[in-house]
Amino acid sequence: MANLVVSNTCNLHCSFCFARDYLHDQSGAAPFLSPEAYDKRLDFLARSGMDEVRLIGGEPTLHPGFARLLGRALERFAKVVVFSNGLAGEAVLAALEAVSPEALTVMINTSASGPTGVLSEQEQARRAAVMRRLGRRAMAGYTIASPDFDCDFLLALIHETGCRTSLRLGLAQPAPGGKNAWLSPRDYPAAGERIAAFALRAAGQGVRVELDCGFVRCMFSQASFDALMRANTRFVSNCSPVLDVDLDGQASHCFPLAGKFTAPLSASVRAQDLRERLGQAVRPYRLAGIYPECSSCALRLAQECSGGCLALTIQRFHPANFRLRLPERALDEPLES
Amino acid sequence: MTPACYLCPAPLVTWVTERGCTLVVNEENAEAFQMTGFNEVLWDCLVQGFSYAKIIQIAAEMRAGTPAVADEMVQAVLREWRELGLVRIEGQAHG
């Protein structure tokens, strides 16, 4: 899978957004992907053997030609996934409604609530209306940015709007500059307890929780993990190159690692090549994890846990910065200039 | 005029303390090194900014050896790290 950035602007600017720096840095550039560049991205997906197009931003539905982007994708691919804040305008919503639920998933981040963390009543009503009209095309998501998060409101929203009875939970991860709000691994165990309790309540109401990337096994006590399993929660501790392709045609391992590990989208490159290249670049960091214990953890060595988000792992590392004056006898090889 | 020479890390070298080892990564060639024992202590001395004399003193105490033996051991490890591309020598002429 690969995500295509089609817009680097957003109408919410949430505190936890890991694309915040990207949006800010790109503020002087054209904010939307051109039709020509978009077609080249689709060529890339096709030659990579992918059957779905995943559109991200910023807010992808703000693209002025969004309906055309959607149509072009569906001409060539079986499925489209749109990652949105759920505040789409009427024209976009009409275009989305015209696609069958089997061919479209709109992942709506219901925690997207702008810099203040609170949506206006109008915005809340709009999001609910969008979810209602999209019905089974919509799937709710929620980003956990605090250990005392509360997303119980979603259970009623899911049933009231008729969207899919699955809920994707993600952990707020640090952006490359780390200026966004993200959940510290110190808070993972507390968040884990809440997630497990919520998953059980959700299951009791017919909603299945799916955990996104970056979760680690040890954030759940055995009792909590058992609860997750009883609730049929999807838990796969993984961290692999998603490939987020930005407006400039640079593919990154994922947004939190954008700018650090990137590779250009050339005319012939395939996703497999980029994954291999980016995977190779980050490989040495895979020996570590988000905690000092990860590198010697049995669950990690048994590949039952990825060690958590690589952006968090890399953040633990210090740049080597020393300058040791050597005695003349110390090294006998010629000096470098 | 005798040039002073300095031991510095290669440009894209990072490190982290793990439980039981120090992990050193050289991004330039995508390599990682798990340092334990004497090598881990030596790396720690470098990032702490200790002088060469102090490093030799620590190495001698650690291995219960003479300063001369410790000096040889330290030099051997530093030479190995140079060959691995983790550190490099920079020369600087005295004023």
Structural description of this entry:
The complex is a heterodimer of chains A (337) and B (95). Helix content of chain A is 33%, strand content 15%. By secondary structure, chain A is an alpha/beta fold. A 10-stranded mixed sheet of chain A has the order 7-6-5-4-3-2-1-8-9-10, covered by helices on one side. In chain A, helix 3 links the parallel strand 2 and strand 3. Chain A is globular. The model of chain A has no long low-confidence stretch (mean pLDDT 92). Chain B is an alpha+beta fold. Chain B is globular. Chain B has helices at 37-48, 52-63, 67-84, and strands at 4-9, 13-18, 21-26, 31-35, 87-92. The interface between A and B is large, with 33 and 43 residues.
Tell me the radius of gyration of chain A: 21 Å
Instruction: List unreliable stretches of 5+ residues of chain B.
Output: none
Which two chains form the greatest contact, residue counts included? A-B, 33 and 43 residues
Which strand order does the major sheet of chain B show?
Answer: 2-3-4
What is the helical fraction of chain A, as a range of percent? Answer: 25-40%
Main β-sheet, spatial strand arrangement of chain A:
7-6-5-4-3-2-1-8-9-10
| Distance linking N and C termini of chain A | 46 Å
Low-confidence stretches of chain A: none
Q: How many β-strands of chain A, per DSSP?
A: 12
**Terminal CA distance of chain B:** 9 Å
**Helical percentage of chain B:** 40-55%
Order of helices and strands of chain B: EEEEHHHE
* Mean pLDDT level of chain B: 92
* Biggest sheet character of chain A: 10 strands, mixed
Q: List the helices and strands of chain A in order.
A: EHHEHEHEHEHEHEHEEEHHHEE
Q: Structural class of the helix and strand makeup of chain B?
A: alpha+beta
What is the alpha-carbon Rg of chain B in Å?
14 Å
Number of helical stretches of at least 4 residues of chain B:
3
